[in-house]
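Question (not urgent): is this output format expected?
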Amino acid sequence: MSADNLREYYKIAIVGTPGSGKTYGARTLDPNSTGFINIENKPLPFKNNFKYHARPQNSASVLAALQDYSNNPDITLIVIDSFSAFVEMLLAEARTSKRGFDVWNLYNEEIGKFLKLIKLAKKEVIITAHDETLNIEGAPEKRVKVKGKEWEGLIEKEFTIVLYTEKKFVEKKPQYNLLLVGEGMSAKCPPDIFGEDVMKIPNDYKEIHKAIINFV
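Got this back:
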């Protein structure tokens, strides 16, 4: 068996509120080896002319771009911005083509396809997502926001690393970090990737990818 077949590929979710730096973390990535899937279909908040920059207009083209980038040997990392935009797009399409319970059946099925493609990709994949607060075992906890009940509170289990954005002002200037752990949130990360005592890191996707490569 080759070393490539033994390689573990990490799937990372970056979760937070709008304006907290989720997309901004991609600013340092290599524009020639990153596959950026811009489901938000909006200008990026930084200068980086990604060679592979998809702007899908429907859910089918999102899945097609993900499959294409997964198969492209020149792409070493895929960024999907955002899961939240994907589920909104998906639900709107389902309501157009289906009725009643069939709307949610299609919606839930397509989310499953999307997550399966991410897991099967033999490269790291980063998705961004909004959060919501749910009652988990009687206590409020932040989770990845998703419409409907079938996937509610369950998106995180599909990812090895879940980081939450933190935006603070230091001397009136915004500072962007990512939390590896915290009370009342579903953040998680293998402790040996960034260090056992590390609780937050700078919001820099290049450094995250570098740390994972060094770890595996």
